[in-house]
Design a protein that fits this description.
The complex is a heterodimer.
Chain A (H helix, E strand, L loop, with lengths): L2 H5 L2 E9 L5 H11 L5 H13 L15 H6 L6 E6 L3 E9 L5 H8 L4 E7 L6 H12 L4 E7 L8 H15 L6 E6 L23 H7 L13 E7 L11 E5 L4 E3 L3 E5 L4 E9 L2 E3 L1 E3 L3 E6 L10 E3 L6 E12 L11 E5 L2 E15 L4 E3 L10 E14 L10 E5 L6 E7 L1
Chain B lengths: L7 H19 L3 E4 L4 H14 L8 E5 L5 H14 L3 E5 H6 L17 H12 L3 E3 L16 E4 L27 E4 L7 H11 L10 E8 L2 E4 L13 E7 L10 E3 L5 H10 L17 H8 L3
Parallel strand pairs in B: 1-2, 1-4, 2-3, 4-6
Antiparallel strand pairs in B: 5-6, 7-8, 7-9, 9-10
Helix pairs in contact in B: 1-2, 6-7
The chains are: A alpha+beta, B alpha/beta.
Chain lengths: 421, 301
């Protein structure tokens, strides 16, 4: 691999969801295997396990099952992360289970993804699970969906069968917020249209799955308009050389900052100008999302963790009542009389769920305003009230400043994730 | 038109620095677990960047099995001096002397498993509430399911079935007294990413990683170095080979690979074409199919 090529690569994160027999593990195994991300000793281990199970072929799906229980039961329980690279991009796969009881894992995997891979069995067409996976991808604002119509080998590589599935999917995709939806007929088992073009589907003029993953435009997935710099910590070296140094350390969640820019600190409202920007020891003229930097300001004003450095003409809303779409993660049901800890950006406040507006039935994509009991895996719309105002952006504007988690103070567990409306 | 896109190494760097700063902000008494291997060296380098121009605000904790390569110890001491940060050494030998653990015997004996006790004792002694490590998810299948912020109960144990969901950039470090966290800021890096970044940033490494001549013998499908603490059978034959190490573990169990790669550029070429995982030459992972998962549950790195 050329050194310079490698340094020029982009990073794409995608998520997959699937259950035991829709070929998800085989597809991932195929992507890893065909892009040579699997090493000989890993393959040997999988070959050994396949033989012990009495299988005739090497079961590529065994590559992706991590925990002992998962291998014994042949299912994926948790989110597993996989890595591979081509000369164009580095990929991170968040591989999640597909069954409804693992909705929370799918939501977790989807939270940072640029692309969602949705697998549809060509024989079965669009089923309940397809709605669910697509809805979660849309809810979490994954910008691109690739629908892989899999097992084309079992329908004789028929264009007619493929188009039937596409039509079915399109008729419900209008309910989704995702604008970019693509379709690819594949056979993960035989490798058709995964990395290499299929010779059995000449009627298909589009490109392979790998080509899509390598070329899909992800440059505009970051928000470079609304300047948001949540302060994580303040750096004060206390050394002779940097006696008066006061640096604000954080990761830029949106926008572009340049030296000399006028800034406004929330919630205090104090204003100043950007004096210096550092990445490590390197001084920069400008910085943008999602860079981790240290900034100094011209004036000695009070800034601390939980504050957001923004710009005068573009502010997040400071809200004490926040409307969210949320997913409940815990076996212990939601308790509306309980105080929870809300973590948003770099701040932590107390909060209460004031009202459940409706619960989403994600198998039928219908709203339920009657039953408002919230338990494990429920997706719902709610209003929460917090002790200190949160500096909010709508989730569709910014996935980082528009998201929060809810923590149970008694168990310290993360019990829910919310997206600000 | 200028584009505002980060390349993948820059994005990985930004993510890791964010995580390291979260550790500093959310915990009272964090530490970096430093093994002297390239991953913990990378982690330390990122920590330096995260708090520059201040010094790294954490101590480096080294669990010393007493079976380390001398090159590793020398490198460690030099680095600590250069960074001006504190070094804390937890000694496995001391744990053995105190009767906290019993040394394994036999030809395949190693102190690998004993480290867990020393590590947990050290965490308790210094009351660390977060220990950062250089583990990566691509290393091993049990690690593929590890969180950035990984909760440990008051016995230091990992419960893989009850991990906290981790979404966006929101890390939940809340815990009860006596519990602690392991944090893995470079979770999303692959071996190739680590090498490319080391080259791009010109990070110094122990000489073990580069090809050198060494007296070795063939054991369990790999080249083991001749040296103190290494047991040889009468039938084992020592030979001189041009070798290098892909990981820095204990001397008796870490295998070398035959290699002419004596520069970072050559190592990267080698990594790009190599067909076995870097942990493939570690005897500690080969004890059973779930060797890593079992050790992690008990509190291993």
């Amino acid at each position: 691999m050329e050194k310079n090529n490698y340094l020029d690569m982009e990073l794409l994160r995608f998520t997959t969801a699937g259950s035991v027999d829709d070929g998800k593990s085989t597809l991932i195994g195929r992507l890893l295997y065909d892009s040579k991300a699997i090493f000989e000793d890993q393959l040997e281990q999988v070959k050994g396990s396949s033989e012990r199970k009495g299988l005739e072929h090497v079961d590529l799906s065994l590559l992706t099952d991590g925990l002992k229980d998962e291998r014994e039961q042949g299912i994926t329980i948790d989110v597993a992360y996989r890595y591979f690279a081509t000369p164009k991009r580095k990929f991170i796969i968040a591989d999640t289970p597909g069954h409804i009881q693992y909705t929370r894992n799918m939501v977790t995997g989807a939270s940072t993804a640029n692309v969602a891979l949705i697998l549809v069995d060509a024989r079965k067409g669009v089923i309940e699970q397809t709605y669910r996976h697509s809805y979660i991808a849309s809810l979490l604002q994954i910008p691109h969906i690739i629908v892989c119509v899999n097992k084309m080998d079992l329908v004789d590589y028929s264009e007619e069968e493929y188009l039937k599935v596409v039509k079915q999917y399109e008729s419900f995709a209008s309910k989704l917020e995702t604008k970019d939806v693509r379709f690819i007929p594949i056979s993960a088992l035989h490798g058709d249209n995964v990395v290499n073009r299929s010779e059995k589907m000449n009627w298909y003029n589009g490109s392979t799955l790998m080509h899509n993953l390598e070329t899909i435009h992800i440059g505009s997935d970051e928000n470079h308009t609304d300047a948001r710099f949540p302060v994580q910590t303040v750096i004060r070296p206390h050394s002779d050389a940097y006696h008066d140094f006061r640096g604000y350390a954080g990761r830029i969640d949106g926008g572009i900052y340049r030296i000399g820019d006028e800034v406004l600190v929330q919630p205090s409202g104090l204003t100043s100008k950007v004096k210096e920007i550092y990445r490590g020891e390197e001084s920069l003229a400008e910085a943008y999302a999602p860079m981790s930097v240290t900034m100094t300001l011209e004036d000695d004003i009070d800034v601390s963790r939980g504050n957001v450095i923004t710009k005068q003409n573009n502010q997040p809303e400071a809200l004490k009542e926040v409307s969210i779409m949320a997913c409940w993660f815990n076996e212990k049901p939601m308790n509306s009389s309980m105080k929870y800890v809300i973590r948003h950006g770099t701040s932590e406040v107390l909060g209460k769920v004031q009202e459940v507006v409706y619960k989403m039935d994600i198998s039928t994509l219908t709203r339920n305003s009657e039953d408002k009991g919230i338990g494990l895996n429920d997706i719902f719309k709610a209003k929460i009230r917090v002790s200190q105002p949160l500096l909010c952006d709508p989730y569709f504007r910014n996935r980082r400043t528009g998201s929060l988690i809810i923590v149970d103070e008694t168990s310290n567990e993360t019990v829910a994730a919310g997206m600000i409306a | 038109m200028k584009t505002y896109n980060l390349k993948h190494l820059q994005e990985l760097e930004a993510e890791s620095i964010f995580v390291i700063r979260e550790v500093f902000a959310q915990f009272q008494n964090p530490a970096i677990l430093f093994s002297g291997g390239k991953d913990s060296i990378l982690l330390t380098h990122l920590a330096k960047k995260a708090f520059s121009p201040a010094k790294i605000p954490f101590p480096l904790v080294h669990i010393d099995t007493g079976h380390n390569f001398p090159e590793t110890i020398e490198f460690r001491d030099n680095l600590v001096e250069k960074l001006g940060c504190k070094l804390i050494v937890g000694s496995v030998q001391e744990s053995i002397d105190k009767g906290r653990v019993q040394e394994e015997t036999g030809i395949n004996a190693s102190r690998n498993a004993l480290q867990t006790t020393t590590l947990l004792d050290t965490i308790e002694q210094y009351e660390f509430d977060a220990c950062m490590g250089g583990a990566r998810r691509d290393e091993e299948k049990a690690r593929a399911k590890e969180r950035f912020f990984s909760h440990r109960d008051d016995f230091g144990q990992w419960n893989p079935k009850n991990q906290r969901p981790e979404l966006w950039n929101l890390f939940n470090g809340r815990k009860n007294m006596g519990e602690h966290f392991r944090v893995f800021p470079i979770s999303n890096w692959t071996e190739m990413d680590v090498w490319q970044y080391i080259l791009a940033e010109n990070i110094e490494l122990p000489s073990l990683y580069f090809a050198h001549e060494r007296e070795v013998f063939w054991k369990n499908n790999t080249w083991i170095s001749v040296g103190p603490h290494v047991q040889m059978k009468p039938t084992d034959q020592a030979v001189k080979k041009q070798v290098r190490y892909r990981t820095c573990g204990d001397m008796p169990i870490t295998g070398a690979v035959e290699s002419d790669a004596d520069s970072l550029e050559k190592i990267i070429m080698e990594v790009a074409t190599t067909r076995t995982t870097e942990r493939g030459s570690r005897a500690d992972d080969k004890r059973s199919e779930t060797a890593m998962e079992d050790r992690k549950k008990q509190g291993y790195f």
